[in-house]
Amino acid sequence: MGRMSEQRSPAGGRYEDELAQALPEYAERVLDVADLIPPGRVMTYGDVAEWLEQGGPRQVGRVMALYGGAAPWWRVVRADGVLLPGHEQRALGHYRAEGTPLKEASRAAEGHLPRIDMRRARWDGGDRAEGHT
Question: Per the confidence metrics, is the pTM higher than 0.85?
């Protein structure tokens, strides 16, 4: 019905057209993975793509940007643990409420925000949302 980008691929390549048509189903799969991540844990964009065995970090990031508002978007993060630009305070509220491990910014780093402690917060999908200690 409403394939918005069917004829509007800037590169004009077949790959972009196929990706645009496949996006809604792929987006649903990405958001399903985001829903599985337990509170206090995170997965990177690349982790989600690897879990799905489809796409890559950029595709997952695009899905989260377009469709992630209804999902726990703060649990799908950059691999370096930097908070999502423009959404730092909202994300921090979720992380603090859920007990997500953070690395606080040093006092010398005036105005700098904490990062996610990826070593402690990253979830590999092993305990399938049964929680963590």
Answer: no
